[in-house]
Design goal:
The complex is a heterodimer of chains A (about 400) and B (about 400). Chain A has about 400 residues and is α+β, with helices and mostly antiparallel strands. In chain A, about 30% of the residues lie in helices and about 25% in strands. Classes of the chains: A alpha+beta (about 400), B alpha+beta (about 400).
Chain lengths: ~400, ~400
């Protein structure tokens, strides 16, 4: 196995995976992560991984052998036990962001950040014992083949999937583009199960959604800081500009983060020049990250929406915008994750996130545990939330109307 | 210690149990009531050690070292030393097994647990607990050094011999307070209503834990209560029964309520006190092989009419004894459904004196019932509610007296 690919990730893992699992839908990773961006590489991977077993570790194998010899219950396989050992050791670090992720989670993480996967393109969800289609992605092989929202998946390649988890069903459906998968579903109103044979393809997972609101106010929502996010934002803003946008709302709510480099690149679209963030490593050394220049919206009226789900890379971008007085932040206090992780893929395709540094805003604020306080605090009441009444977006529009020429 | 690996004998105890053990033992090491705890006394030859085929295991394990070496090279915070890392890894493996009665204990903690189970240790005789990161005195045991020196329930221990307890684990605090008898320890406590911390110097002594209480009841009945199955338990029960039986009582009430268990050997010895000639229990290993444990000769109460008081705190070794008394038709159970711990743990001392306690077998009642997760249903259900407790009533005991007096 060649060395591990490493990249810098800024994300709140738990939230991230909730999203990943959801969007992950049906996809397939070729398993090679060679194209992942390597944002900062500061240390080299240790060489032979088993060379330096410390003598103290002998006790571990004593315990391991006793368990295998005597334990009354079922003993999980070596891999599962090994993952348990890794988690047990990482627990000692008392850092919620230094985490181990099993191969399947690693694959989902890679797809999310890369912005595409190979599969049939449908979102699925667990409903009681069944895996149900939430929605086929428009234009995807699933949609073209006739899969519809609400379809209950009965079989995949003639294998009964009743009682299987979403992850297991997704794994069965995934495969390299160009190959075929047979999906049998039950549909309300149909007596007989329907059988679809679907050719898998590469499916894009866009990180940006945009539209024009009233008064020529453009709206752009970014859901993750992935490899393609910068380009997607540039495209979205160009489109809005061409349609006459005079002001912009940049929505970072519920965005759990992503790559550090992506955060800098995205912030650079709104900040002309100068500091965007600092990174401070273990030895206290600081590195300054500057705006890249040629940003797409560095002058026009802007409001950034944040909430408690805006974390990590989202906070770098919004913190830069706030400290550089480029625009106001509107919404709720953000999550408060001020650390930077290196992501390493291990030899069995599991991965580990290791906290290697902390980052600071341009005014050298460390936001861990505190978050960013919005300039205009607008909470969404549970009633509005339920009714789908986005009071934060409405306030942002109102604010821009008042401040536009 | 002679060998590196010492294998201890089996224990049956559950968490609740443990609380009581450590509670009585003086310094509670753990406050939760869920996980089971057990330790070992016997020193039998060691089983496994290194050269078992580990090649494929170590190949699968390579990813551990990849991960750990990355952490060591890059992590921004403090890196635990190799020993802590090893313990963390073992605990991680044990967690994967998903058995609350299988656990790993570091040497310091293992030693405390062991002395608790041995039923005697050298210390000050107070129980402590951890609440919101503070070490709090739960109960200074009557007549023991802590109480005599003026330690009170609710005292917050700020320092031990001048060392701040801030950030200290309960285990470490207990280890610091304990020490050879005759030596002194000074604890600095904060007490509600007293603005300044108080220094209390206490001379340590041997704390013997009383596990048996007994008394004569009216109508020629006698009462015997056992609080746990630690090392001194079987002798204490035997001695007490000898005394009680001299009065030729008409009936015996054996109270196992709240008794969390302890050593299997004590369960067999104590069960044998009541069962003349029969099976006390059988053990079943993971391959289904049964090992019967017949009663030992010389039981002192094998004929007398008998009622066992049980409740949901009656667990493990207590359930063995209650189960054998019923299955051998020696008496009935009165009270509430028991806890339901039918597993047996063995505790191994590893080469660095840490302990690995694992579930190794299940035990069955003489009639072959595995009560794990089920418990024993009493023959006569009698509840004991908060109102009874407040009023100082014991309806379960009252019912037992009625049964032995009237035969109904």
């Amino acid at each position: 196995m060649q060395g591990c690919v490493r990249s810098i990730l800024l994300a709140v893992v738990a939230t991230f995976f909730a999203v990943a699992a959801f969007l992950g839908g049906f996809g397939f990773s070729t398993g090679q992560n060679g194209q992942s961006p390597i944002a900062v590489v500061r240390s080299v991977l240790p060489g032979n991984s088993t060379a330096s077993t410390p003598p103290e570790f002998g006790v571990f194998w004593e315990a391991w052998n006793i368990i295998h010899k005597d334990f009354y219950g079922a003993i999980p396989d070596n891999k599962t036990l090994t993952y348990g050992a890794i988690r047990g050791a990482l627990k000692l670090l008392n850092d919620p962001h230094t985490v181990f992720i099993e191969p399947r989670g690693t694959q989902q993480q890679n797809e999310q950040l890369r912005g595409d996967f190979e599969g049939i393109g449908a979102q699925v969800n667990q409903v009681q014992d069944n895996v149900v289609i939430v929605a086929p992605i428009p234009g995807s092989p699933a949609e073209k083949a006739g899969i519809k929202a609400g379809d209950i998946i009965l079989k995949v390649n003639d294998q009964d999937v009743k009682g299987k988890s979403v992850d297991d069903v997704v794994a069965l459906i995934r495969g390299p583009k160009g190959t075929q998968v047979k999906v049998t579903v039950m549909r309300v109103g149909q007596d007989q199960p329907l059988v679809f044979t679907i050719t898998r393809a590469k499916i894009d997972l866009p990180s940006v959604v945009w539209r024009m609101e009233e008064n020529n106010i453009g709206y752009v929502h970014l859901n993750i800081f992935g490899e393609k996010s910068k380009d997607e934002i540039v495209n979205a803003v160009k489109d809005l500009k061409s349609k006459g946008a005079k002001a912009l709302i940049f929505d970072l709510r519920d965005n759990p983060g992503g790559y550090l480099q992506s955060a800098i690149d995205v912030a650079s679209q709104f900040i002309k020049d100068g500091a965007v963030a600092y990174e401070r490593d273990k030895s206290g050394r600081e590195q300054q990250f500057n705006a890249a220049g040629n940003g797409i919206w560095t002058e026009g009226p802007l409001v950034v929406l944040i909430n408690k789900g805006s974390a990590s890379a989202s906070e770098i971008t919004s913190g830069a915008i706030q400290d550089r007085k480029r625009a106001i932040l509107l919404g709720d206090t953000s999550f408060g994750k001020g650390s930077v992780q290196a992501v390493h893929e291990l030899s069995d395709k599991s991965s580990i996130h290791v906290t290697i540094a902390e980052w600071l805003t341009p005014n050298k604020r460390q936001i861990s545990g505190k978050g960013l306080t919005p300039d205009v605090a607008i909470p969404i009441s549970p009633d509005d939330q339920k009714a789908g009444n986005d009071t934060q977006l409405k306030q942002a529009i109102q604010y821009l109307k008042e401040h536009m020429q | 210690m002679i060998a590196n690996l010492l294998r201890g004998f089996v224990m049956l105890m559950l968490g609740l149990a443990f609380v009581l053990a450590s509670f009585l033992a003086g310094y509670a090491v753990q406050q939760t009531s869920m996980p089971a705890h057990s330790t070992t006394t016997a020193n039998a030859p060691a089983p496994t050690q290194a050269p078992v085929a580990q090649n494929s295991q170590e190949a699968d394990f390579a990813v551990f070292w990849e991960a750990w070496n990355l952490v060591k090279a890059e992590f921004i915070g403090k890196i635990p030393d190799n020993q802590q890392m090893t313990y963390g890894a073992i605990k991680g493996v044990v967690d994967v097994l998903g058995d609350q009665h299988t656990h790993f204990d570091e040497p310091l903690r293992a030693e405390i647990l062991q002395s608790d189970l041995n039923g005697s240790f050298e210390g000050i005789g107070a129980t402590v607990d951890m609440k919101s990161g503070q070490i709090i005195v739960v109960d200074p045991l009557k007549g023991r050094p802590a109480e005599k020196a003026g330690v009170q329930t609710g005292d917050i221990i700020l320092k031990i011999d001048g060392v701040s307890t801030d950030g200290m684990s309960l285990t470490e605090a207990v280890a610091r307070i304990r020490g050879p008898k005759g030596t002194q320890v000074t604890i600095t406590v904060l007490r509600a209503g007293t603005p300044q911390p108080i220094d209390i110097t206490i001379t340590r002594a041997t704390i013997q834990v009383d596990v048996v209480t007994s008394r004569q009841l009216d109508n020629g009945l006698v009462y015997l209560q056992l609080s746990e199955f630690t090392a001194p338990s079987s002798k204490a029960v035997d001695d007490t029964l000898q005394t009680l039986m001299k009065t030729n009582p008409k009936g015996l009430i054996f109270d196992l309520r709240g008794n969390p268990g302890g050593f299997l050997s004590d369960a067999i010895e104590i069960g044998s006190e009541f069962v003349g000639d029969g099976l006390v229990l059988s053990e079943r290993d993971k391959n289904g092989n049964l090992t019967p444990h017949p009663s030992l000769p010389g039981g002192r109460a094998t004929k007398i009419p008998l009622v066992v008081l049980v409740d949901k705190g009656t667990a493990s070794a207590s359930e063995i004894v209650a189960g054998t008394i019923r299955d051998n038709k020696r008496g009935i159970l009165i009270g509430e459904k028991t806890f339901g711990k039918g597993s047996v743990q063995v505790s191994d001392t590893l080469s660095d004196k840490s302990h690995l306690t694992i579930t190794i077998r299940h035990w069955l009642t003489p009639k072959g019932t595995d009560i794990h997760g089920v418990g024993l249903d009493p023959d006569i259900v009698v509840l004991f509610n908060e109102a009874d407790k407040k009023a100082g009533r014991d309806p379960q005991l009252d019912r037992a007296i009625e049964y032995l007096t009237t035969g109904k």
